[in-house]
Structures are given as structure tokens and as C-alpha cells.
Amino acid sequence: MDSKIKSREIKWFLISGISAVLTDLCVYYLLNQILSHTIAKGISFLAGTILAFVLNKYFTFQSGRKSISELIPFLVLYSFT
Hints:
Layout: H1 3-32, H2 37-60, H3 68-80
Helix pairs in contact: 1-2
């Protein structure tokens, strides 16, 4: 693998991860004002996870495939990490 491609993937992976965490935090903070903390955390986690999947799929790994087979392993892995 070309080092230029690897460098781009690492950059986008970090951007995706930081964006997902910030989305989780912001959504939680906003929803926690009006919902119970458990529900707010569940929704914020889901929002961060969806953002991470989309950014990693289309920007980090530049996958144009439209397949549910990519989503399931991602969700399982993301749930455990």
C-alpha cells in the first residue's frame, strides 16, 4: 500500500473518530437537558456511531458499495469498543 494512501487513511480515520466523539458529546449534552440520561446517552451513541460509519466508509476507505454486509460488522465492532 502506498504511504500516501496510508497517510490519508490515518488522517481521515482520526477526523472520523474525533467527529464521532464530539457528536456523541454534543447530542448527549443537548438531549440530557430534556430526556433522562440513559435515553440521551443511547441516542447520542447512535448518532456518533452513524457518523463514524458514514465518514469511515466514504472518506477513510472510499467504499462506494451499497451493502448491509458492511454495516453489521461495523456495528458489532463499534458496540464492543
